[in-house]
Amino acid sequence: MKKDQIIFNIFFVLIILLLLSFQARDVFAETTVSGNVVENSTWTKANSPYKIVDTLQVFNDITLTIEEGVEVRIAGAKLIKIAGTLVVNGTNINPVIFTSLDADKWGGIEFIDSPNSQINNSIIENAGSAVSLQGISVVLMVGNIFKNNVYPRSVTVSSVI
Predict the structure, then answer these.
(1) pTM above 0.90, yes or no
(2) Deepest of 3, 6, 37, 127, by most Cβ within 10 A of its Cβ?
């Protein structure tokens, strides 16, 4: 009788530990993206991480919004090009993370004549040029951390003749 009780208790404890391990872990989807963003889009934590496997471009008059806690993993040398608007809404507790998908550095976030973008509370790491401003681009940046990038920021101003 004691042996059966001991086996039952061990089995019961194992089931409880298994249930607790599932409950304690956040389970998220994985979303692969590339190409062009041609309609207003929102990336959510529920669909994170977002894996960018080829250069991604947000077109003029289009807004890509990235919610807090999202992780964006970008393949080596690939860029996120913003001709429209990028709105990154990280928080101190749940920053948005931009990082490399593999061992290679990714290209960075390049703004091309993008006057209304903002990146708030993000971690941008392992990029060639983390944030690049081309032409007439204005990007509000608050509470961001830059780690292990070749260049944290670069600016290229187009001249008008």
Answers:
(1) no
(2) 127
Contact residues for 140 (Cβ-Cβ < 8 A; gap 6+): 117, 118, 119, 120
The answer for 113, left when phi > 0, alpha when psi is -120 to 50, beta otherwise, is left
The one-letter code for the residue type at 70 is: V
Q: Please report, as a single letter, which amino acid is at residue 18.
A: L
Radius of gyration for the chain, computed over Cα atoms and rounded to the nearest angstrom: 21
Q: What CA–CA distance (Å, rounded) separates 102 from 158?
A: 33
CB-count exposure of residue 152 (10 Å: 0-12, 13-18, 19+) = middle
d(CA 158, CA 124): 25
Alpha carbon separation from 51 to 108, 132, 134 (Å, rounded): 14, 21, 24
